[in-house]
Amino acid sequence: MTYIVLDMEWSQPVTKERSVKRGGHILPVEIIQIGAYAVKDGKVLPTVFDEYVRPVYYTRLRPKIRRLTGITQEMLKDADDFERVLMRFNRWIRSMNDDVMTVIWGNEDVQMLKAQCAFFGCDCSWLPEWFNLQPIVTRMYNIDRQQITLSGAVELIGATDTELRYHSAANDAYYTALVLSKVDDISGRLEWQRKVENARRAPFRSLSVVYRGDKVYKNKSDALRSGAVNSYSCPVCGRQYGIRGSAVKTDDGELFAVRRCGGHSVEVRLRLIPTGTGGCTAQRTVSLCTEDSAKLYERLASEQGVGNKSRS
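-> structure tokens emitted (312 positions)
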């Protein structure tokens, strides 16, 4: 698998109200630079795609765009139009002679590319499947917020000897490729991220993490004092919780608690399993909470006088 790391810069209308509309399509921005690198087997390949694109509608670059990107009107005047540059980008991807996926930092680039293709009537069905590297890196480094800047990620991986200017499509693609090259088990992390995103779109969809401990504890109290048994993480955002103090007992002897993390609810069920020696082992399941489970928890908490700690 070869990963095509894509970044773009674009020109904007003065205001949204001045966005160009044609045939039911809106041109939110106009791409002025496409940059891409390829990563394979954990290495950034020397091949690079870096081309300016001559805008048709948003031809006067706003001062902020010139300041951020360093791109000037003079640099764009002899560039090819969007369709020609896009065709060459397609050929560059096909030259990899491999299965490919597109990688971006943030969600905007592919969305803007597809919007511009629709506006100009360009075929973009050939665009490889894509994913956003940003949340994968956030989870990989246990960062307690949903987003991290590209420069912050570059610092995390220790690539401090590179001094390329940010907000250049090719340079940002290179920086993103460097970060991607440090990600282990990309396919596994991507699969997990897809589950997370599905869970956020459908908060009551099942997403479970099961812990089965081999350690034998003297008794149930001893087990609950163990951090391995008592502590658990939200399978969506990774937030840490403890079951003691918020758990209720179900009819079949499970300890059961519900927590709410932002827009999703998490349920944890802990079963302490007796052993033949009088001790016990622990099995814990953490999953996204169903509506029925949330109602059950509220009822049992009320009946058992457990403080409502499901909100955090």
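The mean pLDDT is 86.
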